[in-house]
Structures are given as C-alpha cells and as structure tokens.
Specification:
Methylamine Dehydrogenase, Chain H; 4-stranded antiparallel beta sheet; 356 residues; mainly beta; 2 domains
Amino acid sequence: MARRRGELQRAADGQAYGSHGVAPKEAGQQVVTPAAYNAVVAGDRYVLAATAVAVLVGCAVTLRTGPVVLSGIYVADAAGNSVSVYPLDASGDAPPARFIAGPFSRLQTPVSLVLDSSDHLYVASVSRNRITVYGPGAVGNAGPVRVVEGPDTLLSGPSGVTLDAFGRLYVANAAPSRLTVYPAGANGNVRPVQVVEGGRTLLAAPRGIALAGGELFVANSSANSTLVFDASASGDVPPVRQLSGALTGLFEPAAVAVDTFGFLYVANAAGNSVTVYRSTASGNVPPERRLAGPATRLSTPRGLVVDPAGLLVVANAGGDSVTIYAPAASGDTPPLRTLSGPRTQLQLPWGVAVRP
C-alpha cells in the first residue's frame, strides 16, 4: 500500500498505520519507528506530533512526545507542498528532522518562507495566493494559526515574503507585479496597508524580497534587475536605486538577502550563480564577488539566506538540493556541505530560511 510522507491511513479493518506503515495488531502493542514523527488517530481526526514511541490503546494511538527543536534549516518544497526542517549541521542524504505537510497545512506550491522573532513561520503558497502562518515547532499535518487570503489582500502569485522588526509582513507578488504590506498579526481577507504598483515602480515579476536599513530589496526577475524602495513606499513610486545591465551579471534574479556587513546577495536562477554587491550599489556595475561553476553545484538557485555566522545557504530547484558555502565564497568554489538525495525528500526546493 503506497503511503505519502507523514500521512496516517486507516485500513478497511480499522487498523491504524503510522508514518512508516507499521500496523499494530493488538491493543496495547508498542510501535517503535525510526521516523521522528508518528501519528495519532482519534475517531476520524489525524494529528501528528514529535515522538519516538506510539502505543495502540483500543482504537486510538497514544503518543509519548519529545521536545521539538526550533533551530535548523527550513526549506519550502514547491513540488512536495511541504516545509522540511533539517539540523543546522545536516549534510548528504539526511532526512528532515521534522516537516509540515498535509491537507490541514493548506500548503500549495510553497515558494518562500520567513521566521519571526517568536518562531512563527510564514509561508507563501504561490498557486493559491495565500500566506499561512504556523506556530513555533509546528509539525506534520498542522493547521496554520493564521491565514492571509482573499480578494481584498491583493495577493497574486506571492513569491517572496519578509518581515520587519514590528511584525509587518511584506510580500512580492509576481503576477501582476506588485508589493503588498500587511499589519502585524494580519489574518483573513485583510487589505494591505501599503501597495507598490504601477509603471514608475519598474516592477517586473518580482520574486525575492528582503529588508535592511529601512530599505526594501527586490529581485526583479523578468527585468534582470534588483530594485530598492524605501520601506514606507506606497503607490506608483520609482525605486530609490536599481542594479541592471550586462555588467551586473544578473540573470533571472529569484532571491535576495542582505548580510550584517551590508552586502547584497542575489540568486540568479537562469545563470546558476550567486552574485554579491554592496547594498548601496546602483546602476550597471559588476558584482564584488560571483559564485558560479560546476564545482559549486548551483542548479537553478531560487532561494538563499546568509546566516549570522556568514554562511551562505542556497536552495537549488534544479538539483533538488541545498548547498552551504563558507563566508565570502567566490568563483568555482565547492560547497562546505550539500543536502541531496532521496532521504532528504527535497522536491523542487525554492525558499530557504535559517533559525540558529
């Protein structure tokens, strides 16, 4: 019987099956699986929780749960309709420590994600024009604690999300091209408090988005450019500056990040490269550094983040992999570590975030 990751199925005879298809035959039988998660069935409700041991009691599976580790590498798997979380030092064909997936999660082609200071996880589902927010440590088929969705939100192809220090949510919408901003705690069919849209904005299928120093950095994928707006911008306003032109090396920029030293990192999906500029750079200028070449294992990079230690973490949609590079890596430099292989369950990894 085929079973999807994290799902719990009931057989025709009423038996409960765990995440690895182990079917207890008698009430009280203990089931131990190598997975980090098991499932509970109570009536027709399915619940997933962190555990090592499940015990069948009558028609229900009870759990002995363990603590959920919040730190890790968070990856939005667009083809898997899931978010996978890996230990910070994960490498090779390593399974996720936990994941969010299933119908209650409401994930549908997730492509971008960000964590707030309270470890709430925000995820953009591009094919459903929806932002879902999960509580700290959410696992399995967990429902969101909040959902931003509906015609008044003006969400349309949400492809990038970020947050400011006050919890305001910024979204890059690829089709049509607009930026929308929502108040902290936004929920439901809520109107944005700022909308950046119009010909003067130069927006063309914006994807990645990042905040730094009171400015909003945007990966402008269809125009092979990056745009910078004041974080308070609204309406049909021009960017305060832009990077564009042949010297920049930008080629379908899909994600942006700004590190603590004031450098702007750009993932170029069509160029299989990461280019790095001073965050104040403007015009047709070459990058300070460029990471590209076969040794890098970059393959349609669509997500990136720089962690507090300066490590560069990249989600490679073309290679179903996550690659981690040393600070200031440049040229045809191999990654320090690579997450790749069937046990990782990576399926079109798109967005990536790191929680130290």
